[in-house]
Design brief:
The complex is a heterodimer of chains A (about 450) and B (about 575). In chain A, about 45% of the residues lie in helices and about 0% in strands. Chain A is an all-alpha fold. The longest helix of chain A has about 30 residues, at about 320-350. Chain A is elongated and about 150 Å long. Chain B has about 575 residues and is an alpha/beta fold. Chain B has 22 helices and 9 strands. In chain B, a hairpin with a 3-residue loop joins strand 3 and strand 4. Classes of the chains: A mainly alpha (about 450), B alpha/beta (about 575). Chains A and B meet through helix 10 and helix 15 of A and helix 5, helix 8, helix 10, helix 11 and strand 5 of B. Chain B: It is found in: Nucleus, Nucleolus; Nucleus, Nucleoplasm.
Chain lengths: ~450, ~575
């Protein structure tokens, strides 16, 4: 190979070499001034030596080899030229005309993909190697030994391996999947078993749950059993008791409604009469002769006087001051004495005082008990958690004539879904809400269709 | 006095609470997502004590959360999933809008999903915690499993709920832990005792749904999502405690028995197994097939005094429970097609009966109507054409009442076409002095082992009732009588003493006084009691009087009720007689 290559290169360097591309005949060379550079550095050898012509030449050689199977210069003239003897009628292609022919013609895309190089592919190197008997023997011996030990060669092992399941991308497990499987959650080794530091650093440690969350928000049981009157075949009295309860609820509702109506009723005195409207209309038009109120004036005068007197108050004399002081002292002394006597007297009132104290203590105790009881009662009551108050659901009840004789004819009352929902609200797990109303962004526009209008 | 001036609303309760909207913004979630997250994590709104302070002076009603709770929520990995889901929806909508169907498919494949396992573990650190809270989960699962698959909620949710509720019923059957049943107008209440916890749940009747409009389905679906996860893990653990295989499998014997010819007609292959499980007519496979009913007996420890009594009481209770567990053992039931099959099959199997039904009614029937060994045939229609001699035809209420009474009630009251006695609630516990309906009294007497004579004549029955009433009267009247007697005695004594001087001393031969020992003892006790009352402090005496007054009032009310009942009975009886005469 190398020899052939050298030969080709030598041939190309001969003066008779024909380049395939037009621009490779030396005329395209630039004749500008060469830049002078030191040639004592390897870097410059590469950088400033112009090897383009060499590259182009080599490219051309390769192209010729690919396209023509060798250098054109080497080819005999017969293979390159032919004598033109005029227009020859084109020979129809064998294989029929029309559809069939078109079918048998290879596709253009296949043609493009076909190798068009004239250079033969390199031969298999290993094909020339002679088998090494010694080596093969050794390999066979080893294989036998392994087989005796029970170790299979790799290829057989691969064959024996069960065919891998078609790799379907595993869907992530959702909490809603009806086929999902469960495991022992409470004894499975949780992440706590791993190293704490590792968990912290990899952010796998769960944050501690606040202690307060473990308290239930209400003391009510999750499932409240209906009163015995709610049996499908109830005892007479328990049924009556339940009816009474429901009746009382209804009465309360009616009362509330009545109260509202009463409040909203129009006061008859406020209704406009002819007289009152007339009065309103002539308001300010007719001059009313009203006597000025003498009392009011007097009051105003008194106010004036008092203000004036304060401004004109004179200074107190020394004597007055002393007198006042003495009076004050006396007053204080008197008070102190009074206090002394009182406290001394209290000694005799000891019994009544102790009774008072006892009563007071009792009252506080009673109040404390009451407060505690109220707090206890509140625990089972629904809290106010949002805009709306909790509305107790209607009691589920069947009237006396609705009670079925048997289980078959029973018509269930109320909805369990609603019961559950209300129970959640009652236990303060969710806040009572109203359903969000649908708000229309733009007004609806009504247009009569033409067809309809024409008929009309 | 130095220091900075304190500002309002910068400490105390104002900083301990956070309003819902602020919390939502802090988590950067939409309101729906926030609500869902709160439900899943078990974080509920709070009502602050001083609302005005918390609300910074405003009195507007708002929903508040504890700030610490919301901070805790920030660390939840599911929040990230919610955000991912939001993005997924946005991308999907975009792909749809552009009509990129390949893109839509790809997105669908990579739909973000989350699990709630870690939340269950976090909210219920131990198994018992979870078991205590399983009431809600059960009611919700049973409710959702009866929904029609019409798009009110996801079909997968309904399927999962059904599967879990069937598993639960199978566990209850296998462990025989059902205790009480109450058929109400709303639904059926069941109570079971599982590993020492009393669990109550409510099951709707079949086909009893109108969908109320004022219920937020999204909220309910979120609760259900959490509860299904919880119930699944609880079921697994419960199955483990009984050495049952999970997911449940019918044991080999049952499986072969249940292989019917019509199987293909009844359900699809994918569903038929669940259906067979839900039929409840076969027992489940165990991990280790043990000898049946290997019962652990209570260990005996020698103890003294009070503990001994307690132990004995406990032992007695245990024995009674064991007896109750085998209530229907050996009986063979056949359900007619108009009775609620699932409920009855569940209850009967819970107490060891054999159950079957018509082949066309449901999968899993084990024997036919024509089977000679059937002992009870449950019917809920006024009459039946073809009747077999060797079996009782009874109405379904008998089963429930028997379970509640913990004994097999006489079947006569429950025969075909007979007006049923009222179905009493087993959840009511009467204290002494309360009004007790006569039906209940009769039942209690039966439980004590007294068998009232079943004479056809009504008068005698009446007499009995009257006697019972009299007994009631006697109870409260006795004390007064005793007091009166003693007073009479004392008077006599005094009279004698005063007259003692006048009466000449006279010796009469002594009579051997017949002392009624019991009577004496009673008297002694009464005397002691009276003395104790006399020695009471004023405060205690006041309280005592109050209690006694309350008791007497209760008795009076009960008497009144009983009298009313009697009047009612008489009235109805006379009506009936009149009708008969006509």
């Amino acid at each position: 190979m190398a020899a052939a290559r050298r030969h080709r290169l030598v041939a190309a360097s001969q003066p008779g070499f024909l380049p395939l591309k037009a621009d490779l005949d030396g005329s395209g060379q630039t004749t500008g001034r060469r830049k002078r550079v030191n040639k004592n550095k390897k870097k410059n050898w590469n950088k400033y030596s112009d090897i383009q012509d060499v590259e182009e030449f080599l490219d051309d050689v390769r192209l010729q080899e690919r396209a023509a199977g060798g250098l054109i210069a080497d080819k005999p003239d017969d293979s390159l030229f032919f004598v033109d003897t005029g227009n020859q009628k084109s020979v129809p292609e064998p294989g029929g005309v029309g559809k069939k022919g078109r079918n048998s013609k290879p596709l253009r895309i296949d043609l493009i993909l076909q190798p068009d190089s004239r250079i033969a592919p390199p031969k298999d190197v290993l094909a020339h190697q002679r088998p090494n008997a010694k080596k093969e023997r050794r390999i066979a011996q080893k294989a036998e030994k392994l087989a005796a030990m029970g170790v299979l060669p790799r290829r057989q092992k691969l064959l024996r391996r069960p065919p891998a399941a078609p790799s379907v991308k595993e869907k992530p497990v959702t909490s809603k999947d009806p086929e999902r499987n469960f495991y022992d959650l409470w004894s499975a080794g949780g992440p706590e078993t791993a190293d704490l530091y590792y968990l912290e650093q990899t952010k796998k440690k769960l944050v501690k749950r606040p202690e307060k969350l473990n308290e239930k928000p209400s003391v009510l049981p999750a499932v409240e059993v209906i009163a015995p009157g709610g049996s499908y075949n109830p005892d007479f009295f328990s049924h009556q008791a339940l009816l009474l309860e429901a009746h009382e609820v209804e009465v309360q509702k009616l009362k509330a409604e009545e109260r509202l109506q009463r409040k909203l009723a129009i006061n008859k005195a406020d209704v406009a009469t002819e007289m009152s409207t007339f009065k309103e209309q002539i308001e300010g038009l007719v001059e009313e002769e009203e006597e000025p109120n003498p009392e009011a004036e007097q009051v105003a005068d008194a106010v004036d006087e008092s203000v004036g007197s304060a401004a004109q108050r004179e200074k107190k004399t020394e004597k007055q001051r002393k007198k006042e002081k003495a009076e004050r002292m006396k007053e204080l002394q008197k008070k102190a004495e009074r206090k002394m006597i009182d406290s001394r007297q209290q000694l005799f009132k000891l019994r009544s005082i102790s009774a008072d104290v006892k009563e007071m203590a009792q009252r506080t105790r009673r109040r404390r008990v009451q407060r505690k009881a109220r707090q206890e009662a509140q625990k089972s009551l629904p809290r106010r958690l949002g805009k709306l108050k909790f509305q107790a659901p209607d009691l589920d009840i069947q009237l006396s004539d609705e009670i079925p004789g048997s289980l078959r004819t029973l018509k269930p009352e109320g909805s369990i879904l609603k019961d559950r929902f209300k129970s959640l609200q009652k236990r303060n797990l969710i806040e009572p809400r109203e359903r969000a109303k649908f708000k229309r962004k733009h007004k609806l526009k009504y247009v009569e269709k033409r067809a309809f209008r024409e008929i009309k | 006095m130095g220091g900075l001036q304190k500002k309002k609303y910068e400490s105390g309760s104002a900083t301990n609470y956070i309003s819902r909207n602020k919390a939502r913004k802090k988590l950067s979630l939409s309101l729906a997502d926030f609500r869902r997250l709160c439900i899943l994590k078990g974080i509920y709104p709070h009502e602050p004590k001083h609302k005005k302070k918390v609300n910074k002076g405003s009195t507007a009603q708002k929903t508040f959360y504890l700030l610490k709770d919301i901070r805790f929520l920030l660390h939840e990995p599911i929040v990230g999933k919610f955000r991912e889901y939001k993005i997924f929806v946005r991308k999907l909508r975009k792909a749809y809008g552009k009509g990129e169907w390949g893109g839509v498919e790809k997105l669908r494949e990579n739909k973000p999903a989350y699990k709630l396992d870690h939340i269950v573990k976090e909210r219920y650190p131990t198994f018992v915690d979870a078991l205590r809270d399983v009431d809600d989960a059960l009611s919700m699962c049973f409710l959702f499993s009866t929904f029609a698959r019409t798009g009110k909620c996801h079909v997968e949710t309904i399927q999962l709920c059904r599967r879990l509720s069937v598993e639960w019923m199978n566990y209850i059957v296998a462990s025989r832990s059902l205790r009480k049943i109450f058929l109400s107008i709303k639904g059926i209440y069941y109570q079971a005792e599982v590993l020492g916890q009393t669990i109550t749940w409510l099951v709707p009747y079949q086909f009893a749904h109108d969908h109320p409009t004022d219920v937020d389905y999204r909220v309910m679906a979120t609760f259900t999502e959490f509860y299904t996860t919880l119930l699944g893990f609880v079921n697994f653990r419960l199955y483990q405690t009984l050495n049952l295989v999970y997911p449940p499998k019918l044991d080999g014997k049952g499986e072969t028995e249940l292989r019917a010819e019509f199987e293909e007609d009844y359900a699809m292959d994918s569903e038929s197994y669940l259906e067979k499980l839900s039929a409840l007519s076969a027992s489940l496979a165990r991990v280790i097939s043990s000898a049946e009913d290997e019962e652990a007996e209570l260990d005996h420890f020698p103890v003294e005094g009070d503990d001994m009594e307690k132990m004995e009481a406990r032992e007695k209770a245990q024995q009674e429970q064991d007896r109750q567990k085998k209530l229907f053992e050996g009986l063979k039931f056949f359900l007619n097609r108009e009775v609620p099959r699932e409920s009855l099959a569940f209850v009967l199997r819970c107490f060891g009966a054999q159950v079957s039904w018509d082949k066309s009614l449901c999968i899993g029937s084990t024997y036919d109507v024509t089977d000679e060994t059937v002992t009870h045939h449950i019917v809920d229609r006024p009459s039946l054409d073809k009747q077999y001699m060797n079996r009782y035809y009874i109405q379904p209420q008998w089963v429930y009442d028997s379970v509640n009474a913990k004994m097999l009630l006489p079947v006569e009251d429950y025969f075909l076409g007979v007006t049923l006695p009222p179905h009493l609630s087993p959840f009511v516990e009467e204290k002494d002095g309360d009004y007790v309906p006569p039906e209940r009294l009769k039942l209690l007497a039966l439980q004590r082992g007294e068998r009232p004579e079943q004479d056809e004549e009504e008068d005698e029955e009446e007499d009995e009732e009257e006697e019972e009433d009299d007994d009631d009267d006697n109870d409260d009247g006795e004390e007064e009588e005793e007091e009166a007697e003693e007073e009479v005695k004392l008077k006599n004594m005094e009279e004698k003493r005063t007259q003692g001087k006048a009466v000449s001393a006279k010796v009469t031969p002594g009579k051997a006084k017949q002392e009624n020992r019991q009577r004496l003892e009673q008297e002694e006790k009464a005397e002691e009691k009276r003395l104790a009352i006399m020695m009471m402090k004023k405060k205690d005496k006041y309280l005592y009087d109050k209690i006694m007054f309350g008791k007497k009032r209760k008795v009076r009310e009960a008497n009144k009720m009983a009298a009313k009942r009697k009047a009612l009975d008489e009235a109805s009886k006379s009506d009936r007689k009149k009708k008969l005469k006509k």
